[in-house]
Amino acid sequence: MTQLVKNIALIFIVLVLSMSCNEEEYSMGELQPPSDLTITAKIIGADASRPHGDGSGDVEFTLSGRNVLSYMIDYDASDGINFQHLTKPVVTRKYTSVGLNTYTVTVIAHGPGATSSVATTEIQVRSDFTPDQYIIDALTGEGSKTWRIHKDVAGHFGVGPWDDGSVSPEWWSAPPNDKAGCCNCFYTARFTFSRTTSGFSITTSTPDGAFTKTGALAGGLPGIPDGGDEGCYPYGGGTSAFSFVPSSTGVSASAPSTKTAISLAGNETFIGYGAVLKEYEILSISDEEMHLRVQGTETGNAWYLRLVPE
Fold it and tell me: For 254-292, how does the pLDDT look when each residue is reduced to its tens digit (9 = 90+)?
């Protein structure tokens, strides 16, 4: 009996070793990054007589490549790094800088195993835009007009999603004088809009500092420290040119929106809140009040500001 048990055990060991020797070896193989990445730019309205488009500033981009799982795109290298994730390989962008301008577009294609490839292209696009006269008159008065945050009303400051389907501060809306205790500089700042011989200018005056966040979220404002909470920070004020541009969002005119935006040149100036980008969509404006919507420096935020004349 003992010998029989030993023989059975020996046979079992031989079978196991035999199966181990015959096991298949698996490997992932070589990961192939995206290749043949192309950017096709169709400038809307372009033809032989108008090679840079019909003046709308609209450009349709079609992206293609091999082994691509997703795309990210930066529409303009001159305004800093701002890549946006695309849910589909065809997208339309409205360029709003008035006149004929050159833009460098960069696309990152992501592939299997965190591989990626990059492609760039350069386009020239024309944007022709003249705002309604009532907007110019309401903003600048008879030549120069100073505005401040309308601190006494609810909703003078607020935040919601950066989404064309949302045009209200649905995440948070400030009650009257909400920032007086922590950040009164928000209310003492003044913003003067002027007509000049060459266009338009804005002067930002902040006797008690700029209301903003810090570091990269400060929108490039000079002198703001690298770290710290949202609050008031020393800022010497500044003057820069601004232009009226067609709003680059898809917010409907019935939202309401004037479909017109204030685009500030450079990083020396801001309106109301420092932690935002430089295109302020005018949702509504009259001689007595202005309602603005602007993209925050934090991805996904739309900030709302209500201002009244000084």
Answer: 999 999 999 999 899 999 999 999 999 999 999 999 999
Q: Which domains are seen in the chain, by residue range?
A: 35-127 (2.60.40.10), 133-309 (2.40.128)
Taking alpha carbons only, the member of 310, 289, 22, 11 closest to residue 138 is 289
Q: What is the DSSP letter of 272?
A: S
Instruction: Sort 14 into a burial class: Cβ within 10 Å, 0-12 / 13-18 / 19+.
Output: exposed
Rounded to the nearest 5°, which phi and psi values hold at 40?
Answer: -105, 120
Which pTM does this prediction carry? Answer: 0.69
Is residue 214 within 8 A of residue 262, CB to CB? The reply is no
Reported residue count of the chain is 310
Report the C-alpha gap between 261 and 291 in whole angstroms: 11
Distances 21 to 10, 14, 16, 25, 258 between C-alpha atoms, Å: 17, 11, 9, 10, 75
Query: Which of the 8 DSSP states describes residue 35?
Result: E
- State residue 140 phi and psi, 5-degree precision: -105, -5
Which three-class secondary structure state does DSSP give residue 108?
strand
Question: With 70 as the cut, is the pLDDT of residue 11 above it?
Answer: no
d(CA 222, CA 264): 15
